[in-house]
Structures are given as structure tokens and as C-alpha cells.
Amino acid sequence: MPTRTIGIVIDGATGRLGTTQHLRALLAMRGESGLPLGNGDRLMPEPVLFGRNPEKLAALAEKSGGLNWSTDRDACLADPAIEIYFDATATGGRPDRARAAFAAGKHVYLEKPIAENLEDALSLARAAEHAGRKGGVVQDKLFLPGLKKLRKLYEANFFGRVLSVRLDFGWWVFDGGLYPAQRPSWNYRRASGGGLILDMFAHWRYIFDRLLGPIAAVSCRHMTALPQRIDEAGKRYEVDVEDHAFAMFELEGGVLAQIGSSWTSRVKRDDLLQIQVDGTLGSAVCGLHRCFVQPLVMTPKPFFSPEQPQAMNFDEQWHEMPDIEPFENGYRAGWELFLRYVAEDAPFPAPLLEGAKSVQLAEACYRSHRERRWVELEPLSL
After folding, report:
1. Among the listed residues 244, 237, 236, 230, the one whose alpha carbon sits nearest the alpha carbon of residue 199
2. Tens digits of per-residue pLDDT, 124-164?
3. How far out from the chain centre does Cα 179 lie?
4. CA distance 117 to 361
5. Contact indicator for 228, 241 with CB cutoff of 8 Å
6. What is the pTM of this model?
7. pLDDT value for 319
């Protein structure tokens, strides 16, 4: 079978997402002799690592099998062997970097959020069309086993009429004092595109639009729970973005969803992300990998006694869905879709307009907080 190579520059290659998620996914494809295409050919990704620290880049390149690396952005964009520009670095400045890649004739694949404001996000979608290049945004959570099982329940009409949805997400991110923080400091600075809502509600937008039901309107409140943190250099800095948010989504059809998201909340549930859907015929609770159900005919009848502790063990009254389909790494699944989109114009569900919808949701949440009211989400188009 003929093999075609395709150069991919990874901006932010030495960061957590760049290394442990995206580069790992591309290297897995390389280890399997490339990605099979519809015509029988194989597409071999050729990653080029890009960043600012030559020592880190050289070490990662050697560890990854002798990949090419560079600290020269212009040289990468001018290289005709590089067809795709991928951005996994800080959100701040992403639109300018992506526009430069389009101007250089590259296809562009971006981590979310694709921009800090809706105007920039829509401009990127227009830039892709103007350049005649493909653009896409990462939507990795759609491929998680727990969420795929939840979607199967919708398709099987397990819930009957859906009554409500509740999404709980988050964990305690240390401030750098007692223990090092688990998230980079740029996440907590407005100038670099930080903020919980801008970062995490991008996931909630595509999860609802694709799995749970399109969002029609939002009401949101947020806060900065830890106003000071310590950065990677050991210096204390002021946090000027939110790290804790609560929202209500009204879905098309009137279903209400409760959204709790926090980087300052200690976990006492089955997973870091937990989604509960309640319907007339049954309920389900899913995490990242597991999903539990309780149909109407097996729903218990709890009681309250002021004199005795609750006798029922509610966790035992749920039944786990089995693993029927094989596990699929969400980052690799996204790359396979985007590479086929570029190589053979295959269908791709996450063009840059979808990334703009995520930014639209974040802006609506911020506006709702400022004005203390519900904000409707209008349809987006180019």
C-alpha cells in the first residue's frame, strides 16, 4: 500500500497537552504504519516539535524517536513539507498564530478555546474559508467511554422524556504554597487567556450540542475563590480570572441543566466529571469512563426518619453499563478525523465554527454574571 507523509508542526509541543496527549496520539499512529485512508493508502504523520526552549525540544525529539524540532516559527510556516499547524500552547495569542498559519497556506487544528472573544473566533472560521484551507478544533471529551455510553441511552430512548441534567466538574488545584499547582499559571491570568469559564465551558458547549441537547440560554455566576497563587518560578501573583462557576443552561425544548465547575472544590463523587440525566423512564449517571443506570421499574422508594440514619445505600441501587465497544483515545480519534478531513475531504464534525460556539457560550456566561440575567444564545453563521 502506498504511504503518504504529512508534516504537522506542534506549537507548544513540550507542554502537558502537546506532549502527553497530542504527540502521543500521533506517535501511536506512526507506530502502526500510519492512518489507513479510504482508497487503501496510508497517511504517515511527521510531527515537527515547535517551542521556545531548545533543550526541552531536543530532549523530547530524541525521546520520541528522533523527530525534527525548531524554535523558528517563520521557518516552520514556510516549510512546504509541513501541511498542518497545530496549536496546543496558551490561549492568549492563538488567533494571531492561527491566522499566520492560514496565510502561509497551512491547514489549522486548534486546542480549545480557539480565541478569547467571539469576534476573533469567527474571524478564524472566515480565514479558513478565505484561504481555502481546513480548520478544526479539538473535541476530545466526546470520545470518552462514559459519555459514549450516555449517548447510547439517548439513542435507545432509555430516559423517556428528559426532565433535567446535572453536570459536576472540578478538583482542588493547589495554589503553589503547600504543594505545586497542577495547572499552569497562565490559566489564572486574563492577559494569557486564562479563566475557568473560557477554558472548561468550551467542553460543555460541544458536549451538550452533540450529546445532551443544544443550549438555548444561560444564567451564570462566577467568582475568584483563591485570589493569590504562586507561579512556576516561585513568585506570588494576583489571580484576575474566575476559578469557580455555577450556571443554568436552558436546552432547546425547555429542559434545565445545572452546571457546577470549579478548580477549588474537593472531590467526593465517582469521577472528576459526573453527568446525571433524569427522565420519566429512567436515570443515568456517567463519569469519564463508567456509566450507571436506574430504570423506572427499579427505582426505590426512599424514606426519611428524624430518629434513625438513612438505611438505604443509594449507590448499590444503580447498575453499571458494560464495556461493549473498545476504548478509543479521544485525542487520537480527533486527529484521525482531522487528518482524513485534510487528506480526503472526509466529514469532520468540529470545524472552527463549532469552536466559535464555545467562545459564544463563555461570553454569554460572563455577560449573564455582569448583568445578573439570562442570556440567549443566537445561531451563529459566517
Report:
1. 244
2. 999 999 999 999 999 999 999 999 999 999 999 999 999 99
3. 26
4. 10
5. no
6. 0.95
7. 97
Q: Phi, psi (5° rounding) for residue 171?
A: -160, 175
Burial letters 269-286, b for 16+ CB under 10 A, else e? ebbebbbbbbbeebbbbb
The amino acid at 291: C
pLDDT in tens, 107-128: 999 999 999 999 999 999 999 9
Phi, psi of 61 (to 5 degrees): -60, -45
Cα–Cα distance, 323 to 343 (Å, whole number): 32
Report the b/e string of 348-369 with b at 16+ CB within 10 A.
bebbbbbbbbbbbbbbbbbebb
- Determine the Cα–Cα distance for residues 12 and 71; give it in Å rounded to an integer: 11
User: 319-320 and 162-170: which strand pairing?
Assistant: unpaired
The three grid cell numbers given for residue 206, joined into one nine-digit string = 460541544
Instruction: Single out the residue of 197, 124, 127 nearest to residue 355, CA to CA.
Output: 124
pLDDT of residue 328: 86
Please, what's the largest Cα pairwise distance for the chain? Answer: 76
- d(CA 148, CA 139) in angstroms, rounded, equals 13
In a 10 Å sphere around its CB, with 0-12 CB exposed, 13-18 middle and 19+ buried, how is residue 254 labelled? exposed
Cell triple for residue 82? 509541513
Tell whether the model's pLDDT for residue 382 goes beyond 90: no
Q: Which amino acid is at 47?
A: P
CA angle 358, 360, 366 (to 5 degrees): 110
**One-letter-per-residue 3-state SS of the chain:** CCEEEEEEEEECCCCHHHHHHHHHHHHHHHHCCCEECCCCCEEEEEEEEECCCHHHHHHHHHHCCCCEEECCHHHHHHCCCEEEEEECCCCCCHHHHHHHHHHCCCEEEECCCCCCCHHHHHHHHHHHHHHCCCEEECCHHHHCHHHHHHHHHHHCCCCCCEEEEEEEEECECCCCCCCCCCCCHHHHCHHHCCCHHHHHHHHHHHHHHHHHCCEEEEEEEEECCCCEEECCCCCEEECCCCCEEEEEEEECCCCEEEEEEECECCCCCCCCEEEEEEECCEEEEECCCCEEEEEHHHCCCCCCCCCCCCCCCHHHHCEECCCCCCCCCHHHHHHHHHHHHHHHCCCCCCCHHHHHHHHHHHHHHHHHHHHCCCEECCCCCC
Block residue for cell numbers 526541552: 56
